[in-house]
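Researcher: For the record, we're logging two predictions in this thread. I'll number them. Prediction 1 follows.
Model: Prediction 1, sequence and structure:
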Amino acid sequence: MTATALVDQATQSLEDPYNPTFCCRYYICLLSHINTGDEFWENPIASDAPYAGNLKLSLDSMVNLPKSMKLLDRVSIFMTCDRSREDMAFLAQRMEHCECDRTDSLVDSMHAWQWNPAAFDRYPEGFTCRTTTLGGLIAIIADLLCAAFELKRSGEDHQKQWPRSRTDCLGDSDESAAVMFCRWLDEYPILPILRAVGASACLFARGIIVPFLLSAHLPKNLVAILKRGVDSIPSDFEGTMDAFGVLYPITCVFTTMRDISNIDDGVSTAYFFREHCSLFLETLNRIAAIDDRLPWSMNATWDDGFSMGGVVHAKLVLPFDETKYHSKILDWSRLNRMTILAVQTPYELARNVMLTLAELPAQCMNARCPNKGGQGPFMMCSGCKRVVYCSAECQDKDWNGRLPHKSVCKKIRVLGDATGIPIYATPKIEPPQIEISEFQRRVSERTGLSMVSLMIFNENCLPDDRIRRVVNDSELPSLSDLRAIALTNCIPFRI
């Protein structure tokens, strides 16, 4: 028996990705013999079968050989082709129960093996994937794809290497492939799939990152696996130099988070984690505490994780509560808040502030209102004719308060009157679709306010988290989106 004969047989058996010929045990044995070129790689299979001395496969060679490329095509499409949850359950039931034709000597030899307990495993206890289930097979395929994608990115003659095109491994649709990566991860929340997600994001960029960021399953599982990684660390842990020790799951999750965030300034990824931000930031607090007591500093990958926490904290405008958030998160949040607002011009910021004031549901504008915004009836400020208060006491406190209304009152009135932005928008009265250039023209011609005056106005308005939470989103494609953000993100007003 030769490796070529086995590759041919396996390739033919996967011609129909929905109906593979053999069981999990067969494919696990074959794919486990592929040396990925990793310096830590070690064949996890122990066998005395006749094929053992002949089956030597190298991924470095396979990505350049047409016959081997065909096998990689089919293995990849097996994982990325569209399957429903019911399809996945049926596939597991079928492939985990061997009905292979063992009269074929090639097929029979691929079943005569056991796991080698002494072989190196990059995944620590609690995260190992060495089983003969469909989950074990998916783990091996995901690790193989990760290694192949990394080879593709680093290869000198990468145009000829597998995958020669994205359809070789993603099929006809990036979106469908991304959905399947996330669906497999939801079924089997394991590190190899996370690594494949990150590697595919690095190789195929925006086409597959956008569907990842739209996934309902990916953020949930990233945060859940991160928490599992922290939970698995012994309470008396004092540090180790083992790159694949108990800290590896944390590093692996942070790496994936970094890889899928390379698309914009953090807007998408911040809202990507919004539903899970409490657990995410709580887990980051624990990781930062672990990092503080390690005898050495973890590499930049952990900084990527803390930075992501800072982006989430900044974009969602969470409070700077040092009793709730670790200083590493708050430091990155401060940096990200400055970066987020720096990309908007003074006129753009002022326009968005005025639109936000128009869109905010009626509420007491005293940031420290004892009624948490009040329920009405409200009294309107006679100066700006734009903001309201639930009582004279709240109005007096806000006039000279922490965010003194007196510093912006006249300018709010002047800007509103000059640009035609209504006092309050309603479902029947939407704000004008005023572009930045038109806003700037009206301000310049009708108010006499200088750019410096606008900058001071913005600086006085933006400390109000209710305004900042909307204005933060610097990449809104239209004013209708600004309206939607205001109505959804500013209720409730305090997080």
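Researcher: Logged. Prediction 2.
Model: Prediction 2, sequence and structure:
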Amino acid sequence: MALELNAWTRSATGKGAARKLRAEGRVPAIVYGVEPKPLVVDAQDCSRLVNEGALGRLVHLRLQDVGETKTVLFKDMQVHPFRGDLLHVDFYEVALDEEITTRVPIVVEGEENRGSDGGVLAVQLWEVEISCLANQIPESIAVDVSRMTVGENLLVQDLEAPEGVKILTNPDEVVAAVVAPAAVVEEEPAEEAGEAGEAAEGDEEGAGEE
């Protein structure tokens, strides 16, 4: 399901105009298509969409000043490195029957139901690149880890993509693994034994000096 966002066309461009927009609580944006179209969106509304996972998904841009709606892909955004404020947003105009490439998040499910084997789940990949029709972009791809055991890896090729969706990420890339923390613990006794040996050696040297 596509998200919705109000937008307005803009004619003023450049750093000065962009700073003025941000001071007013708005964000400069651009829609790439046959001809790039500069727009402006409300900062709070756009941030809300970002928090809902809008990046990489379809958005219906409702151009308030011209009474037009554009179906776009929320392609990219620039964020202030310290404050976290939105600085600029990039959209790509798409046709619903057009095949496009984008990225979608991986949602890990079932960790709380995994057996108590002492293993720790390590997620190594949080999103994958996909190809599909614009109107078939999934919000996410879910993966169930409830049956994974220690030493087991889950790969990209193990993911189940929705019908009509092709995963482009390397199929051999690891999504998640269950590792045993015991490997770290087992090293400690050896280190303690070494320290004890050094202490005993020191005692012997001391005895020799007397």
